[in-house]
Amino acid sequence: MFLQAKIPLMALSLILSAQVAPAQEDLRALALDIFSPLPSTLPAVANNPLTPDKIALGKALFFDPRISASGVFSCNSCHNLATGGDDNLETSIGHGWQKGPRNAPTVLNAVFNGAQFWDGRAPDLAAQAKGPVQAGVEMANTPENVVATLKSMPQYQDWFRASFPKETDPVTFDNFARAIEAYEATLLTPSPFDAWLNGDDAALNDQQVAGLQLFIDSGCAACHSGINLGGQEYYPFGLIEKPGAEVLPEGDKGRFAVTETVDDEYVFRAAPLRNIAVTAPYFHSGKVWDLKVAVEIMASSQLGTDLTVEEAEGIVAFLGSLTGTLPEVVYPVLPAETAATPRPSGEISVE
Amino acid sequence: MFLQAKIPLMALSLILSAQVAPAQEDLRALALDIFSPLPSTLPAVANNPLTPDKIALGKALFFDPRISASGVFSCNSCHNLATGGDDNLETSIGHGWQKGPRNAPTVLNAVFNGAQFWDGRAPDLAAQAKGPVQAGVEMANTPENVVATLKSMPQYQDWFRASFPKETDPVTFDNFARAIEAYEATLLTPSPFDAWLNGDDAALNDQQVAGLQLFIDSGCAACHSGINLGGQEYYPFGLIEKPGAEVLPEGDKGRFAVTETVDDEYVFRAAPLRNIAVTAPYFHSGKVWDLKVAVEIMASSQLGTDLTVEEAEGIVAFLGSLTGTLPEVVYPVLPAETAATPRPSGEISVE
Predict the structure, then answer these.
(1) What is the DSSP string of A119-158?
(2) Where does the chain bind heme c 2 (chains A, B) (predicted)?
(3) Which residues of B touch A89 (CB under 8 A)?
């Protein structure tokens, strides 16, 4: 009865959507040459097979503030799964109330980036995870203290053993990072744009379709392509016209710090654009809060194009279709400290 | 088939438990005069009827760091549901890396406390919720800025309307606090001790039963009684013998600051003991990390008793039976900021 009622309704809806939105097969074929929808399964991660145990351990570690020296910050502090996988700050505030040098990128779908950090200095999420833990302005911890902290709690020892069953001493800083990588590889957010790429014309409205067309035609997609619409290659910020020092501070030369090649001055990884509408502020400097302004800056600085208001709004509308849905996250219950757990310290060491 | 197999097994298990643990009816009757098990339903909260909408809104607010001036701290930062509802720090670190004056108490089951804070200065959780938001060393925000932040996000406006349907302007600081109170009233953690109070002899082991008996006989239960084993009445810390200044710093005179009555110098609310084993460090000063040491200090300072090692361990074992299980918490997805959302500021104002 229900089934019988449903089929005509669905057919009707298909007919209606075919009437209001013309077939978008040409644009879809073009888009599928440039972009890819998120897969329906978890990705394979190099040298790090995903298992349910490892993912669960990684989730606990991701949410555990005791991996910071002070006991205040977890991965989730700056990559908050409640707010688009970032912290909505210009640059993050860390240990000792110090400000980080660059805007925290979203962790969502980050497994599909070609490399991690704005300058791509970490080849993968496991390498990335080790950075903030040790950075003096972020968690200010040491690998030794992280391992001592985890080893002090029998439940964590059990979880590491289950996650790395072939290892005799599984509680290591490397495995800590691998487990976090495994969990982060599950943080995928299918979006209306994926539904559209997969054939659902109704997933984007007319303005978003026009915005997508313009995103491709005007050249944005030259850098912002692939599964994450960016996150793969490196480009100078200000290819055609350098933005002001407010947006592109002179002191941060981007990938130059990694390669020490003059050509890499002010070169950054093209920002991945999934969930961009919910992860303001923008750019490595975090200086721009309005997505439309960010789009306009990109158009002028990278493409030498002055967008009309309507064009900029169309692209922003399209970018809104990249806001996806995270799988339900059950907040973990973490092991309790023991007498052997190193004490948190908020002290700021003078270096 | 399964059912048939199950019944004999259950019967066998009952016979076995009856053999190893003698009937504990006398102790249970005594305990039920002093303590109460957690109820199986949510409590009624004065002037704040609990509804699913209000609870969901309160959960979002509880986890939202944008209610702090800096955008760094949420309620969950210091009352972390992953770690026993507190932050495992001596005293919390807040805005500008300032240290709070007292150890953060657990939010779990806090709805059953007679009043909130170590000195009981807030009559209920709604009043409590307003404190840290405005405290300069915690979130350093203002009610006006909180309301402006929440009003800037249409999703929050919808949620407030659904939660307070009779009000024309529901997004207020009072309703913000009421919603948080509603959510916190759901954070109940039934424990083995509740199962034992409810009649399950097997829920406590012999050492825990002996520890409970001693907890009552030696006088602990005189202050640590009721549903939360404390959290109701006020007592001088150091009734018989003042602990050292390391544990009881001279500058913090406790409830005296609330009542300005000399009798209330160094008077504090008896700490509620549910989940005490997972919420180190202890006392308002947070100076004691070992629960056994805390128990010994209490015995000598409040009761004039020197416990034997076996006695102290028995009480600690009993206290372990107060560690409960939180209902599954699905991490919320929060509304995204808009152009109207006040910007976070980590600046420290000089007062």
Answers:
(1) T--BSSHHHHHHHHHH-TTTT---HHHHHHHHHTSHHHHH
(2) 220, 223-224, 298
(3) 70-72, 344, 346
Instruction: Tell me which residue range forms the domain holding B230.
Output: 24-39+189-321
Catalytic center residues of B: 138
The DSSP bridge partners found for residue A93 are: A99
What is the number of other CB atoms lying within 10 angstroms of the CB of residue A342? 16
Helices (H), ranges, chain A: 2-20, 25-34, 52-62, 75-78, 125-134, 143-151, 154-163, 173-184, 192-197, 206-217, 220-223, 256-259, 291-303, 309-320
Is A138 catalytic? The answer is yes
pLDDT of residue A5: 43
Report pTM. Answer: 0.92
In this structure, are A284 and A253 located in the same domain? yes
User: What are the pLDDT digits (tens) for B230-267?
Assistant: 999 999 898 898 888 888 988 888 888 888 888 888 88
Same domain? A131 vs A224:
no
Q: Which residues of B touch A332 (CB under 8 A)?
A: 82
Asked if A82 and B64 come within 8 Å (Cβ–Cβ), the reply is yes
* B69 shares a domain with B149: yes
Name the domain count of chain B: 2
Which of B137, B287, B337, B341 is the best residue to mutate to test the A interface, defined by the most A CB atoms within 10 Å of its own CB? B337
Is B348 contained in some domain? no
Measured between CA atoms, the residue of chain A closest to residue B280 is: A337
Find, in chain A, the residue whose alpha carbon is nearest to that of B291. A339
Q: Mind telling me how many Å the CA of B263 is from chain A's nearest CA? A: 35
DSSP A169: S
Residue A113 is part of a domain; what is its CATH number? 1.10.760.10
pLDDT tens, residue order, chain A (351 aa): 344 444 444 444 444 454 444 568 999 999 999 999 999 999 999 999 999 999 999 999 999 999 999 999 999 999 999 999 999 999 999 999 999 999 999 999 999 999 899 988 889 999 999 999 999 999 999 999 999 999 999 999 999 999 999 999 999 999 999 999 999 999 999 999 999 999 999 999 999 999 999 999 999 999 999 999 999 999 989 889 888 888 988 888 888 888 888 888 888 999 999 999 999 999 999 999 999 999 999 999 999 999 999 999 999 999 999 999 999 999 999 999 999 999 999 998 755
**Claim to verify: residue A171 and residue A246 sit in the same structural domain:** no
pLDDT in tens, A112-150: 999 899 988 889 999 999 999 999 999 999 999 999 999
**Closest residue, chain A, to B278 (C-alpha):** A336
CB contact under 8 A, B93 and A81: no
**Residue A240 tokens, joined:** 């055609």
Who's near B295: CB < 8 A, 6+ residues apart? B307, B312, B315, B316, B319
Same domain, B162 and B210: no
Interface residues of chain A, partner chain B, Cβ below 8 Å: 63-66, 70-72, 77, 80-84, 87-89, 93, 96-97, 99, 277-278, 280, 289-290, 326, 328-334, 336-337, 339, 343-344, 346, 348
Give the domain-ending residue among A137, A154, A185: A185
